[in-house]
């Protein structure tokens, strides 16, 4: 009986083709995963840059002087401070009522509570509870609480009895969005009813 010897040379080419296809598929999947991760990382980095730019452009600045108000020339401490704020160049509108305000001196640290009272009613609110702040008046601004381009809003914040002559005080203004603003001022040695804090 004549038996033929089996030849497996054809299978070797087929197996090599299958292995090659498997490598190509694995490489394609791997490259897809790597590219997907790269695109995801790039997108997150772009979002971070945009968020940072928005934070920077929504900041505000103190416009002009910071004034301290006392009961008169015989007073030894100020009752409240007033100052105007405006948007920086390119700043976006911000709601001032959502801003957190803190007062700090060498003896006192307190979070100030926002009140909707304005004008002389704000004086009364601050007199009854010093840890209060609000919008005193608006300059070139509409009646809403948004600080918009070209507007200036005068803020008034109460101060404790520790805000005495020759004391350094700090008001920290932290808006809901944007950079915080710290106002550092010194109360002069002699007080008048209205005093420029330096």
Give an account of the 3D structure.
With about 200 residues, the protein is α+β, with helices and mostly antiparallel strands. The mean pLDDT is about 85.
Which secondary structure elements does this structure contain, and how are they paired or packed?
Elements (H helix, E strand, L loop, with lengths): L8 H49 L2 E11 L7 E10 L6 E2 L4 E5 L4 E6 L4 H10 L3 E8 L6 E2 L4 E7 L9 E7 L6 E6 L7 E4 L1
Parallel strand pairs: 5-6
Antiparallel strand pairs: 1-2, 1-11, 2-8, 3-7, 4-5, 4-9, 6-8, 9-10
Highlighted features:
single chain; about 200 residues; alpha+beta; 9-stranded mixed β-sheet; two-stranded antiparallel ribbon; 2 helices; about 35% strand
Short account of what is shown:
This protein is an alpha+beta fold and 198 residues long. The protein is 30% helix and 34% strand. The mean pLDDT is 87.
Mean pLDDT: 87
Number of helical stretches of at least 4 residues: 2
Q: Shape from CA axes?
A: rod-shaped
- Ranges with pLDDT <50 over ≥5 residues? none
Rg computed from alpha carbons, rounded to a whole number of angstroms: 33 Å
The major β-sheet equals: 9 strands, mixed
The percent range for strand residues is: 25-35%
Helical proportion? 25-40%
- Helix/strand class: alpha+beta
Annotation, overall tally of beta strands: 11
As laid out across the biggest beta sheet, the strand order is: 10-9-4-5-6-8-2-1-11
Distance, first to last CA: 117 Å
* Order of helical and strand elements: HEEEEEHEEEEEE
């Amino acid at each position: 009986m004549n038996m033929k010897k089996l030849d497996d040379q054809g299978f070797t080419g087929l197996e090599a083709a299958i292995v090659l296809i498997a490598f190509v598929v694995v490489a394609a999947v791997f490259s897809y995963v790597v590219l997907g991760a790269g695109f995801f990382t790039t997108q997150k980095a772009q979002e971070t840059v945009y968020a940072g730019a928005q934070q920077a452009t929504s900041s505000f600045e103190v416009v002009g002087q910071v004034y301290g108000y006392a009961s008169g020339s015989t007073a030894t401490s100020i009752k409240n401070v007033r100052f105007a704020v405006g948007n920086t160049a390119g700043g976006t509108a911000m709601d001032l009522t959502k801003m957190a305000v803190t007062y700090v001196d060498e003896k006192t640290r307190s979070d100030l509570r926002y009140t909707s009272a304005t004008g002389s009613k704000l004086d009364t609110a601050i007199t009854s509870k010093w840890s209060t702040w609000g919008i005193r008046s608006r300059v070139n601004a509409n009646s809403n609480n948004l600080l918009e381009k070209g507007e200036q809003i005068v803020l008034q914040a109460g101060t404790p009895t520790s805000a005495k002559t020759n004391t350094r005080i700090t008001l920290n203004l932290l808006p809901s969005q944007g950079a915080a603003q710290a106002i550092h001022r010194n109360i002069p040695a002699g007080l008048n009813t209205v005093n420029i804090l330096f």
